[in-house]
Write a structure and sequence with these properties.
Layout: H1 4-38, E1 55-62, E2 65-71, E3 78-84, E4 95-99, E5 102-103, E6 108-112, E7 122-130, E8 141-146, E9 167-170, E10 180-185, E11 191-196, H2 199-204, E12 206-209, E13 217-224, E14 227-235, E15 244-246, H3 256-260, E16 268-272, E17 277-280, E18 284-286, E19 290-294, E20 304-308, E21 316-318, E22 322-330, E23 332-336, E24 345-349, E25 353-361, E26 364-374, E27 379-387, E28 390-402, E29 407-415, E30 418-422, E31 427-429, E32 437-441, E33 444-446, E34 454-457, E35 466-470, E36 473-474, E37 487-490, E38 496-498, E39 500-502, E40 516-518, H4 523-526, E41 527-529, E42 534-537
Parallel strand pairs: 15-16, 16-19, 17-20, 18-21, 19-22, 20-23, 22-25, 23-26, 24-26, 25-27, 26-28, 27-29, 28-30, 28-31, 29-32, 30-33, 31-34, 32-35, 33-36, 34-37, 35-38, 36-39, 39-40
Antiparallel strand pairs: 1-2, 2-6, 3-4, 3-7, 5-6, 7-8, 9-12, 10-11, 10-13, 13-14, 41-42
Length: 556
């Protein structure tokens, strides 16, 4: 039997089927394509026919200058940018820009905002894409950011720089040369002084501006040509009134302060001469309200020094039974010959008394076993305040120690200060629960407390209103041998806190501080010179550079 015709027929039939099947499929595909072009069983959403929304929007803040960046999207020709201050509501637009931006190799588009912002203010910003060919604009991308402080060449004015009628303005010569200083009255921004800076001023990096009004608020601006290089607010001092004992004209008599204090009237202000040392060869006990200050002298910045010396020159105390409104030291150096910090105190209050306030303002304290100690008898002190001070080289009684169960100290306030090289707990009251408030805020603390000691130690005693620890920088603890770990706050009251930072060499061994952010660098990397007592922040990327620690050291 010949199978060849049969095989041929079968093959032919198979080929015909394949051709037919291919034709059918092709027809269906064509029909489907035509149907897709002409018919829909649903309506298209026109809202998707638009540009893609800019993504990864971010703000880089440098003081009052801001640069925005975002991921560029296809077919976008330009961008609209709007700013407001209303937390992403954009009810009131305060600035609006149209820009193409600058596209970088990293795939982001950048826009440096040409106008400066108010300092330390929260803003909202939103960005949308625009296509000139007619494609509908994109949706908005929006974020919040907060501006920083104005990048100023001015040095902050201290209490030593201001009198009742003048100010000593100082700056750092960086960038374009400073040319002019203007002083405006704070109340109405009227210009009251315009000073053209001389070559001598620029060499000295300061000038003295006089002819101002006592107890008046002003704004000081410094310029390079027409460009503002910095500003700050200040107020002149009030003219001293009441009983004023001015010792500035008496020179060459180191005992003049000790000789004068017993004879003055209650409420007197004693003015010391800057740069002069006043020796205390005996302890002195207050029985009246007294204020001791360094007198105004814009030719020197070194405060007067109160110096406890000798075997009997140990400290200030009070007379038994005294009722005193206040004892205040302002802008003075208080120190002793007790370099080992083992015997003397600035204040060692041992007698029954009632005192409204003990105040150290803009002072420097050094070489004491303890700066302020209370002991022995029943006493009631409303407030101990240490503000804008630099205190170092203290021994086993630390900064403030309450050392008797009958010592009532209502408020212990330590603010805007630098505390370093403290050989014990910083603030201590393991005797009673009579304190209402303990506050440590805006302080730079380094080599304090001593290894295994506490920043604040109340044992199990309580503080009725609370313990607040805010906006501080804590560096390494004071070493004992090779050991530097320290403890935070021990108390029957839980401490609260926010905005605090610790350096990488701060090692906690318990009772952790509240509200702490860890900084990656050591204290020696963050601060300019820890041995020399210069704690100026050197790292411009540090999160607390202008919000934590003693403000005198803030980065700018």
């Amino acid at each position: 039997m010949d199978f060849k015709p049969l095989i041929f027929v079968a093959m032919k039939s198979t080929n015909i089927n394949k051709i037919f099947l291919t034709a059918v499929i092709a027809g269906l595909i064509c029909t489907g394509i035509i149907s897709c072009k002409k018919f829909n069983d649903w309506d298209a959403d026109a809202s998707y026919n638009r540009l893609f929304t800019p993504s990864d929007l971010a703000a880089s803040v440098d003081g009052v200058n801001v640069t925005l960046k975002w991921k560029a999207k296809p077919n976008t020709d330009s961008y609209t940018i709007e700013f407001s201050k209303d937390s992403l509501k954009f009810t009131t637009i305060i600035r609006k820009y149209s820009t193409r931006g600058t596209k970088n190799t990293d795939g982001y588009t950048y826009f440096a905002v040409p106008d400066q912002f108010d300092q330390v203010t929260q803003y909202s910003v939103r960005v949308k894409g625009i296509d000139s060919a007619g494609t509908p604009e994109s949706n908005w991308a929006a974020i919040l950011f907060k501006s920083g402080k104005f990048p100023s060449i001015l040095n902050s004015a201290t209490i030593s720089d201001i009198t009742d009628v003048a100010i000593r303005a100082s700056w750092t010569n960086t960038g374009d040369a400073a040319t002019t200083i203007k002083i405006l009255k704070a109340g109405d921004s009227s210009v009251v002084k315009t000073v053209t800076l001389t070559s001598t001023d620029l060499t000295n990096q300061y000038t003295v501006i006089s002819g101002l009004t006592p107890a008046t608020g002003y704004i000081l601006y410094i310029y390079s040509g027409t460009k503002v290089r910095g500003w700050y607010d200040f107020s002149t001092k009030a003219t001293l009134s009441g009983s004023v004992i001015d010792l500035r004209s008496i020179t060459g008599v180191p005992s003049i302060l000790a000789d004068t204090l017993p004879d003055i009237a209650a409420g007197s202000t004693v003015i010391l001469k800057k740069g002069t040392t006043y020796e205390m060869t005996n302890s002195y006990s207050f029985n009246k309200t007294v204020s001791i200050i360094s007198g105004d002298d814009l030719t020197t910045t070194t405060p007067a020094t109160i110096y406890f010396k000798g075997t009997t020159g140990n400290n200030f105390d009070v007379v038994s039974g005294s009722v005193i409104d206040s004892i205040s030291l302002t802008n003075v150096i208080i120190t002793s010959d007790d370099v080992s910090a083992s015997a003397k105190y600035a204040f060692n209050i041992s007698q029954p008394c009632t005192i409204g306030k003990i105040s150290l303002e803009s002072c420097t304290g050094q070489y004491f076993r303890g700066l302020i100690r209370t002991k022995d008898n029943t006493m009631n002190i409303s407030t101990i305040s240490i503000n804008n001070c630099i205190v170092s080289d203290l021994g086993s009684y630390g900064l403030i120690t309450v050392d008797n169960a009958a010592n009532k100290i209502d408020n212990i306030l330590v603010t805007n200060s630098t505390i370093y090289r403290v050989g014990a707990t910083v603030v201590k009251n393991v005797r009673n629960s009579l304190t209402s408030v303990i506050k440590i805020e805006y302080c730079t603390v380094n080599e304090a407390p001593l290894y295994a000691n506490y920043l604040i130690d109340l044992n199990t005693f309580t503080v009725t209103t609370g313990i607040s620890i805010n906006n501080n920088i804590f560096g390494v603890g004071k070493a004992s041998g090779a050991n530097v770990s320290v403890k935070g706050c021990r108390s029957g009251t839980t401490a609260t806190g926010t905005g605090n930072y610790t350096t990488s060499d701060y090692i906690s061994s318990g009772n952790a501080l509240p509200g702490v952010t860890a900084y990656a660098g050591a204290s020696t990397a963050l601060f300019t010179d820890v041995v020399g007592g210069n704690f100026k922040v050197t790292d411009g990327t540090f999160g607390g550079k202008s919000s934590a620690g003693d403000p005198r050291w803030w980065w700018h």
